[in-house]
Amino acid sequence: MCTAVVRNIPTGCKTIDEILEGGIPKQKISLVYGEAETGKTTLAMQCGINCARQGYKTLFVDCDGAFSTQRLSQIASKDFKSVAEFIVLIKPNNFGEQAIVIDRLTDYVTQSFRLVVFDTLTSLYSVEIAEYPKRTFELNRELNRQMACLAQIAKTQKIAVLTTSQVRNVFSEAFVNIEPVATRVVKFWADIIIAMKPTENPQIIRAILEKSPRKGLPSTYNLRIEETGIHECLIH
Ligand SMILES: Nc1ncnc2c1ncn2[C@@H]1O[C@H](COP(=O)(O)OP(=O)(O)OP(=O)(O)O)[C@@H](O)[C@H]1O
Ligand SMILES: [Mg+2]
Fold this sequence. Notes:
Layout lengths: L13 H6 L9 E6 L5 H14 L3 E6 L6 H8 L3 H5 L2 E4 L4 H9 L1 H4 L4 E7 L3 H9 L4 H22 L2 E7 L12 H11 L2 E7 L5 E8 L8 E7 L2 E4 L4
Parallel strand pairs: 1-5, 1-6, 2-3, 2-4, 4-5
Antiparallel strand pairs: 6-7, 7-8, 8-9
Helix pairs in contact: 2-3, 8-9
The structure holds adenosine-5'-triphosphate and magnesium ion.
Adenosine-5'-triphosphate (ATP) binds next to helix 2, helix 3 and strand 8.
């Protein structure tokens, strides 16, 4: 009898993948958060590429309009052509469209999909809050609803959901207290949390595995961003 092996989706960062028993898990929400240029999108692309290498599709919800085919080609290298066919890109233009994507996710995500990426999950939310600060409570509630939907869909459709979030937004001091609320919402729903921190060397990122099913293991890793993507490295 053939038993289907349910494999996790490798991030491409060796020790993180070992600790996560192969990578980000299906039926759960993973969160990668950090400041700008810390490799969140690169890591998300790598998950999409590795998912394609397993023979499954990724729905990449590009909320930032930051998805670059050229970057995908650099990271996927010789596999680019085959990988590209397995990555379906969707670009919501505002928080309302993001809600529609989530509400219709079960229509898009058929059996050939194993991964849904939201990059950056909180950016359109932040734009909306900047425009309508009086609606903060309502928008937080909507973000919470979206996360609840994603958690439910991850379980029922047996897919991995990878979300990215920034720690700081571009708003003035008047709104500085808003972002942590979003962070609390996204952290609440995430089963795996990886924080990406910049270092003095712009190529080196410190990744902290803040939440994972395995406890008591080393949780800080140095990653290097280069042409081929973001990978673990040893620095002294
Ligand atoms: N071809 C390349 N070779 C080396 N480094 C690259 C290459 N392309 C991009 N980078 C680096 O990757 C970093 C940006 O990575 P990425 O877009 O994944 O960050 P991010 O955390 O998603 O940023 P943001 O918060 O702005 O969305 C930059 O520091 C950039 O210099
Ligand atoms: Mg990004």
